[in-house]
Amino acid sequence: AQKITQTQPGMFVQEKEAVTLDCTYDTSDPSYGLFWYKQPSSGEMIFLIYQGSYDQQNATEGRYSLNFQKARKSANLVISASQLGDSAMYFCAMREGLGNTGNQFYFGTGTSLTVIP
Amino acid sequence: GAVVSQHPSRVICKSGTSVKIECRSLDFQATTMFWYRQFPKKSLMLMATSNEGSKATYEQGVEKDKFLINHASLTLSTLTVTSAHPEDSSFYICSAKQGPYNEQFFGPGTRLTVL
């Protein structure tokens, strides 16, 4: 089974609008971390936001927030007030185990976001 | 955040030659680094986990004799693509764990083109 599933290969959003990028995950480990990365056309992977499995509140980082629904095993990324520079590939990832106990990251297939002026 | 560099950023080589890619952690020590391969518009595929002072751990299906990994110091891991062929053309990215969440910080990637 896929560890990370991103069902939206491509998304479009109007500038200044909010957009939600979907991510569901599959694990039997009670301890895990969820990550979102942005990959612009230059290729570099940029860390955006983190959610730990025991975190009670949804993570937020500036215009990024993570809608963490543990029972549904979903970790959707919400980008508010979209900007043209947000156009990129977005990858959801999971690490089983917390801290130094988990090593391998599992990546989703990514969502290509295009912000329309 | 932590900085990971990669060199070279682009390389074009002839079929049959070997290419070495360096991955450095610039402001922290990394006992473990990761090497990924990414095809156009695809996700990252973990190739191997590079461990300082010991042998790398390769993922299933990755030829360890073709993709040689050396992690000789706490700040440097190298990936050597031996006897490269056109099908080895890809984007190779390294990463290391750091930060409060042990998130992975990625290098800028190396685009390899084998003619």
Key structural traits:
heterodimer, A: 117 residues, mainly beta, six-stranded mixed sheet, B: 115 residues, four-stranded antiparallel sheet, 0% helix, globular
Describe the fold and architecture.
- Chain A is 0% helix and 50% strand.
- By secondary structure, chain A is mainly beta.
- In chain A, the strands form three sheets. In chain A, strands 2, 5, 6, 10, 11 and 12 form a six-stranded mixed β-sheet that branches. A four-stranded antiparallel β-sheet of chain A has the order 3-9-8-7, with no helix packed on it.
- Chain B is mainly beta and 115 residues long.
- Chain B has strands at residues 4-7, 10-13, 19-25, 32-38, 44-51, 57-58, 67-73, 76-81, 90-98, 103-106, 110-114.
- In chain B, strands 2, 4, 5, 6, 9, 10 and 11 form a seven-stranded mixed β-sheet that branches. Chain B has a four-stranded antiparallel β-sheet with strand order 1-3-8-7, with no helix packed on it.
- Chains A and B meet through strand 5, strand 6 and strand 10 of A and strand 5, strand 9 and strand 10 of B.
Mean pLDDT of chain A: 93
Q: What percent of residues of chain B adopt helix (DSSP H or I)?
A: under 10%
H and E order of chain B: EEEEEEEEEEE
Q: If you average the pLDDT of chain B, what whole number results? A: 91
Q: Evaluate the radius of gyration of chain B.
A: 13 Å
Oligomer: heterodimer
- Morphology of chain A: globular
Low-confidence stretches of chain A: none
Q: How many individual β-strands of chain B?
A: 11
Largest sheet of chain A: 6 strands, mixed
